[in-house]
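dude i think i finally got it to work??
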Amino acid sequence: MEEKPARLSVGVVGAGRVGPVLAAALKLAGHHPVAVSAVSDVSRRRAESLLPGVPLMEPAAVLAHADLVLLTVPDDALPGLVSGLAETGAVRPGQLLVHASGRYGTSVLDPALRAGALPLALHPAMTFSGAPVDVQRLAGCCFGVTAPGELRTAAEALVIEMGGEPEWIEEAARPLYHAALAIGANHMVTLVAQAMDLLRQAGVQEPGRMLGPLLGAALDNALRSGDAALTGPVARGDAGTVAAHLAELRSHAPDTVASYVAMARATADRALANGMLKAEYAEALLGALADGGTR
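look at this
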């Protein structure tokens, strides 16, 4: 029989939307959440919901109780947290310190590494609500994994135990990796929200019902076919339609003009590059975008 991996005591520093979810997933895999640090009332309630019975402690106490510590604080707070924990002697040799930031690799954990910790960067490529349903969403979720070479197997094993799929990301590529995800996910939310607002202004009672099938098909086509999935007036070179769009946006939603122009220009560039947008139509189209962006 194969020996089961060692079960670990798990601590969480930062009970935002991600940390308690990852700890709950590790609990399902047989590990033991033992301590969580939470500051706000919202984070305390989240910890109680996802990790019932797990005591709340100060960050240093969390490290004192746990073999594996999830450092799930905002990106900008992570370097200071790591430095502070290392300087106060809270980090123990052989302790696994895991952050879930997409921006950073393991270099941000260097102060803890010098104190003997084992650094891992495990970033789930998923949006989180902080609700229990997020644990199920980890099934099949890709994680951006960065770790020292000797810890790569351990890092990937933890991801698999949480139900995820490990994807190795080199340290130097972490910022680019994270920028790609932000463009794909964060900016999409903004664009969808803008589209819903405009549909409401146009009299559509349930914008989500109208957009759902359209956006689902567009996403599926884009993932399957890339630029070949481009459709619409920009890809076709319909300068008159684009000009009409911009006139309406300037009148009814001027705050959306800049994003429309920026995305239309990016779309035109890609459509030109793959031959979908004919050069003879591109000049008039780009002229309409130039006019729309400066009025």
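The radius of gyration is 24 Å.
im so relieved honestly
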